[in-house]
Design a protein that fits this description.
The protein has eleven helices and six strands. It has about 240 residues and is of the alpha/beta class. It has one domain: Rossmann fold (3-Layer(aba) Sandwich), CATH 3.40.50. The longest helix is centred in the middle third of the chain and has 13 residues, at about 150-160.
Length: about 240
Amino acid sequence: MHWILLRGLTREHAHWGDFPERLRAEFPDHQFHTVDLPGTGVHFLEPSPRTVADIRQKVCEQVRHIPRPFSILALSMGGMVALDWAQHAAPGELQSLVLINSSSGFSPSWHRMKPGAWPRILRLLARRELFHRERDILALTSNREVPLSVCKAWYSIQRQRPVSPSNAAAQLLAAARYKPKPKRPMPDALILASKADRIVNWRCSAEFERRWCWTLKLHPDAGHDLPLDDPEWLIRQLKDWLPGR
């Protein structure tokens, strides 16, 4: 099985850290492809579209070479792109869908972005000193003590492939506007959420379970960046859910 991995707002493939390698070790028969949203990563010089649908179309262009059907594992805003993809996928294109700490227009705005997170995120995106900005982003998205090596790695990422303020604003606008179609795109999907997420309320994930009867698993204390805070738990949920799919 081929997997596409999508990150969230202003983040890119390198922000997964060693998580793709962990996946490859645990699922040796699967292939995992980290793909960047427009305006980030290898596409940091490109303008980011202002709608999730247009972002999804740009991502689709990047993966034409990947055999179908494939599966998608996506975090945060990447989950919006993945869900939009699932709702527009051609028959037989998508096999499995895993959304992590994502949200949509099905939920109220104060759940999609907790009120206390808005001013912090806006200040972070406007901050010019890269090392302290990346350190503070980690402090907001992770509920664990983050090693200095990770802070340095994220600083290096932004030095090499900086996300422009205009692209960050375009992504924020796209995320705020996004609302899925009412029809369930597939019989089941795995929805993973952190109850202690300080950015997105876990009830956004619970809404997918309530509305479409998808499988929901909740982590008790990890932060928004669940693959960073507890990759073992995440992989365990995948192992339990995937057999037979």
